[in-house]
Design brief:
mainly alpha, two-stranded antiparallel sheet, 6 helices, 63% helix, elongated
Length: 153
């Protein structure tokens, strides 16, 4: 399987205008998948088209990623800027559709949305750790008693 090119215009891949609403983009993606899914068609061109359509859909279905893509696309069309893109505090992050730059603040926000990192998640981890220590101590105690009983016989 090939990895989609990062310079693909996702709107062109799906054949929709850049102002298309979510439902139009979804329908275009579904249409392309029906027409060119490798399990149905089976040739390399269809596989490539499906991979590119899935990569485009992975970006355009999420409003946050779509807005980020639109900003990058607009800046690419505007031409090279004098500021370097390497110094904006962004790090590469792997996700659906490939590697995309995200800021450290975005990573922290994403981690904060995960239940394991919330206040309740921290409390659950602390309770689980305490219970694990109690169980471990009980196992050690029972093992010690069994060894003593065997040694005394």
């Amino acid at each position: 399987m090939t990895i989609p090119a990062t310079d693909d215009d996702h709107y062109a891949v799906l054949g929709v205008p850049n102002v298309a609403p979510h439902l139009v983009i979804r329908d275009a993606h579904r249409r392309i998948i029906r027409e060119s899914h490798p399990d149905l068609v089976g040739d390399a061109v269809a596989t490539e088209r499906t991979v590119r359509a899935n990569a485009a859909w992975a970006v355009l279905k999420d409003p946050v990623r779509r807005a980020e893509y639109d900003r990058r696309r607009a800046s690419r069309e505007a031409g090279p800027s004098s500021a370097t893109d390497q110094d904006d505090g962004r790090v590469p992050s792997w996700g659906p559709g490939g590697v995309r730059p995200v800021s450290v603040a975005q990573l922290r926000e994403a981690a904060a949305r995960e239940s394991a990192y919330s206040v309740i998640g921290r409390a659950q981890r602390a309770a689980f750790s305490a219970a694990s220590r109690r169980v471990g101590a009980g196992i050690v105690l029972v093992g010690t008693l069994v060894l003593l009983l065997v040694a005394l016989r």
